[in-house]
Amino acid sequence: MIVTIERVDSFDLRDLLGYDASPEELAIHAPCLKDSTAMWLGRADGAPAAAAGVIPYGSVFSSRAYIWLIHTRICEQHPLRFIRWSRKVLDEIRRDYPIIVGLCKCDSEHSQAWLRWLGAEFDFSSRPLECFRFRIG
Prior knowledge:
By secondary structure, this protein is an alpha+beta fold. 36% of the residues lie in helices and 34% in strands.
């Protein structure tokens, strides 16, 4: 499998989530694309497999950014390949935003493992919307 990552201005959310994605699921993720100052699209053999982006935290002049990730089962089946590209993306993000913050679903073991590998520290005392807060940097 050939895994690639590229910085993009936009991408088709349906291509990533699948054409059977519900309108609610699309609506949940759409603001991430709209509000991001930078996005990356990961592909496996040319097919969209993951996307990540950053949204400035507070203002566009902030040194902190909120990071988001949407991944498919391909990433779960081949975690090492996608973890490697995510380190490159994080290095690029940290040039502009030394502090990365976000939320991770409490029941998402794959996402928690990915974030730990990237250096995230979790605040397990906070659970907004059944999520843990995290910080990198």
